[in-house]
Design brief:
By secondary structure, the chain is α/β, with parallel strands linked by helices. It is built from twelve helices and eight strands. It has an eight-stranded mixed beta sheet, with helices on both faces. Helix 2 links the parallel strand 1 and strand 2. Helix 10 runs antiparallel to helix 11. The radius of gyration is 26 Å and the shape is elongated. The N terminus and C terminus are likely disordered. The structure holds uridine-5'-diphosphate (UDP) and magnesium ion. The site of uridine-5'-diphosphate has 16 residues, from strand 1 and helix 4.
Length: 330
């Protein structure tokens, strides 16, 4: 009964779909077609917001063409490549929907899952994230690192970041506005969405292969995202450094005392001096460890520096399609 009531008012829902695009010329048309088919079947009002993240291929011209043919299509084009997380952020800034879906352009996230997500939204959930039960298209390396990363991350953070989820999700206006209020530069959106709380649930799906082309997330970008996940959501690495420093110093002192006792007992041998300097070098100086620890501190300091600079998160070179719709940017 309750569901029915909510369901009937759901016809008023205005749905925004955010699709970040970086060199996806071979996928865009099919992506737009499958999204359009799915959403028109549901029968809600909608907009498709493609955020072109500084593509160097024909993505932008294909999007511009699509936009001319279809009023539902809106295009935001970045002045350069800012990265997936910022492309999604821009999408959230431009979206005017009551509910907002974030979905990749390469069709690894099936648009056909959106009706199930919308059902959960109608039940009252603010964040409905897609949970991958299989990852057909991903390499063994990617699967293994993702598995380890999420488990490590949840040991480190105080808010629960659901494992095996990406950015594919439907969020309510309330959740989107909460996330829009968080303007940190090094963004790990799935962590930010976990941080805001509200009512959250999952819908499961099998992650397909890429429709076309290669991943736009090479190892470097993946490591950067993993770093943002850890350093934006946990101060524990700093605590570990402090603890390990105390531990190393304590071990050094114990070793030194042992050597001194041996020396006093006249049993230190000729290489006493050598051992002494070794102890100092390994446990007290320990250059490699110090540099590594400094590096971890640097991760936090660098992020503070970027926040203090206060640069905009992204720069938009052009946008189209927003004048006709209900677009409002606050
Ligand atoms: N993407 C982006 N900017 C980037 C890298 C990727 O907007 O710098 C987009 C990309 O076009 C795709 C989504 O982000 O729509 C996810 O990227 P990809 O499929 O390459 O990542 P993977 O699925 O391999 O992790
Ligand atoms: Mg992909």
């Amino acid at each position: 009964m309750m569901d029915k009531q909510l369901g009937s008012s759901a016809d008023d829902i205005y749905l925004s779909i955010i699709i970040p695009v970086y060199n996806e010329q071979a996928s865009i048309t099919e992506c737009s077609r499958r999204l359009t088919d799915t959403i028109q079947n549901i029968g809600v009002q909608y907009e498709l917001i493609f955020v072109d993240d500084g593509s160097q291929d024909r993505s932008l011209s294909i999007l511009t063409e699509l936009q001319k043919q279809d009023d539902h299509v809106k295009v935001v084009s970045f002045a350069r490549n800012h990265g997936h997380q910022l492309a999604v952020t821009a999408g959230l800034d431009y979206a005017s929907g009551d509910a907002i879906v974030i979905i990749d352009a390469d069709l690894q996230d099936p648009p056909e899952l959106i009706p199930a997500m919308l059902d959960k939204y109608r039940e009252g959930y603010d964040v409905v994230y897609g949970k991958r039960i299989s990852r057909e298209g991903d390499s063994a390396f990617k699967k293994a690192t993702a598995w380890g990363f999420y488990r490590l991350l949840n040991k480190l953070t105080s808010c629960y970041i659901p494992p095996d989820t990406g950015d594919f999700r439907l969020v309510s206006r309330k959740a989107a506005d909460a996330v829009r209020g968080m303007r940190e530069h090094n963004r790990f959106l799935r962590g930010i969405f976990a941080w805001i709380g509200f009512r959250q649930t999952a819908v499961e799906f099998e992650r397909d292969k890429r429709f076309a082309g290669e991943t736009k997330y090479p190892l470097g970008k993946m490591l950067k995202l993993a770093g943002d996940g850890v350093f934006s959501f946990s101060l524990k690495p700093l605590g570990w450094i402090a603890l390990s420093g105390v531990g190393a110093a304590a071990a050094g002192i114990v070793w030194l005392l042992g050597l001194l006792i041996l020396a006093l007992a006249g049993r230190a041998g000729g290489d006493f001096g050598f051992l002494l300097s070794l102890v100092c070098a390994i446990f007290i100086e320990c250059t490699g460890w110090i540099l590594a620890a400094l590096g971890v501190v640097g991760m936090y300091v660098g992020r503070i520096y970027q926040e203090v600079q206060g640069r905009p998160l992204y720069l938009v070179a052009s946008s189209s399609g927003f004048d006709s719709g209900a677009y409002k940017k606050s």
